[in-house]
Amino acid sequence: MPGALPVLNSRAVEFGVRVALALGCQVNQRSIFARKNYFYPDLPKGYQISQYEEPLARNGLVTIHTAKGTEQIRVRRVHLEEDTGKLSHKHDATLLDLNRAGVPLLEIVSEPDIHTAESARAYAEVIREILIYLDVNSGDMQKGVLRVEPNVSLQKTGTDMLGTRTEIKNLNSFRALERGIKYEITRQTKILQEGGVVKQQTVGWDEQRQTTFTQRFKEGEQDYRYFPEPDLPPLILDSNWIKEIRADLPELPQEKRQRFQRQYDLNAYDSNQLVSEPALADYFEEVVEVTTGVSQKTVANWITGEVFSLLNQTGESIKTQKILPLNLGELLILIDKGVINPTIGKSVLEVMFQTGESPKTIMSNRGLQQITDMDAIAILVGKVLEDNPGEVQSYLSGKEGLLNWFFGQVMQDSSGKANPDQVREALNLQLATRKKEMKPANNKQDEIL
Q1: Could you tell me the pTM of the whole model?
Q2: Which of 332, 373, 386, 402 could potentially form a cystine with 395 if both were Cys, beta carbons 3.0 to 4.6 Å apart?
């Protein structure tokens, strides 16, 4: 509120240092808060407390991967500031929400190393992932806890000078980020090709119209009249405290991906999927730990395939869904040992997802045990062959592709419970027997002819 004195939040400083170290920045033991003066109604006191010339940290590096290969994006600075109010523009009116004004905010500023909308999206995705792994941000862009604001400017071929920039404010999705940048590139290109001048301004993104719109014409750095914030002393960090924070950093996403490929023999796609969020990576490793004898690739396939499918259908997250790692491991062991087949396994998994029960409990209650008794399977096979004499005759006459059709009929009649390997074994045995029984009759007929 106007007239209230600012108080620095030590937890926000700690989070800022964690982020800076994870981005490979040099953390400054001394940093200065400054007043950034501008007239805009998102802060009622008419200025924003930020950091500028002496920020919390400098000179980081982020590695991204795009269709064009690996790129290195330099981080210019990581600094603390206060958040502003939220403005919602509705037709001819503006709604102002000041609830978040003054709340600690961390800003990460990159160097102009990003040259495509795709690279900008990849960079933002990597930043979001790191913030989630550091447990300093939920990454929920829809709720506004993470916002991306690209500055877009064009550079004439053959020169090093960047053109006038526009800033797209408060983008809350990666899709909007990519589309907004592409639109601005097209808009500015058209202006320059027609001999016009690009104006420095802040623009918003209209998701419905897929266009940017002017919010305000932006001041230059000299217009902000930065000067040291008189109500906050210099921020002095103890070097030992910085070391403690560094020692407490978790395994970061890129390190975890490399370890997953090395330790679990996973390909890049699987490791990317599983490491996309910390809870998912932890879930995978917990399942692996309880599935002795089952390949880790099989565990990855079931999680990224069947479990992901159930999550997508219901909107659940890996944190809120009911399948315990121990129960998923038990299910995969049952499938691996042939106690149940994969088809039954998928049915059991669906019930596990709904109820949280163990696979053995579900199989017992619903009669889903696999049929492995060879005599029972022989009866099922014999019935299919007896009920389809025409197909049997065609098979014996040389249409051996019908073997898969017989197999499908047996599995259908058993509701998928018959052991597939034993079904094939019984089919081969009974069809071979019938083929032998045909030979004497054919020989006798040859003698008569």
Answers
A1: 0.81
A2: 402
Determine contact, residues 339/420, Cβ cutoff 8 Å. no
What count of other Cβ atoms lies within 10 Å of the Cβ of residue 380? 21
- Residue 393 belongs to a domain with what CATH number? 1.10.10.410
Phi/psi at 443 (nearest 5 deg)?
A: -65, -40
- The answer to whether the CB of 235 falls within 8 A of the CB of 31 is yes
Q: How many CA atoms lie within 13 A of 72 on its CB side?
A: 5
What are the pLDDT digits (tens) for 92-149?
888 999 888 889 999 999 999 999 999 999 999 999 999 999 999 999 998 889 999 9
Q: What is the DSSP string of 299-361?
A: HHHHIIIIIHHHHHHHT--TTTS---HHHHHHHHHHHHTTSS-HHHHHHHHHHHHHH---HHH
Same domain flag for 396 and 438? yes
Q: Are residues 203 and 236 in the same domain?
A: yes
What phi and psi, each to the nearest 5 degrees, are found at residue 96? -115, 125
Give CA–CA dist 219/214, Å, rounded.
Answer: 14
Would you tell me how many other CB atoms lie within 10 Å of the CB of residue 185?
15
What are the phi and psi torsion angles at 331 (to 5°)? Answer: -60, -45
Is 339 a domain residue? yes
3-state SS, residue 217:
strand
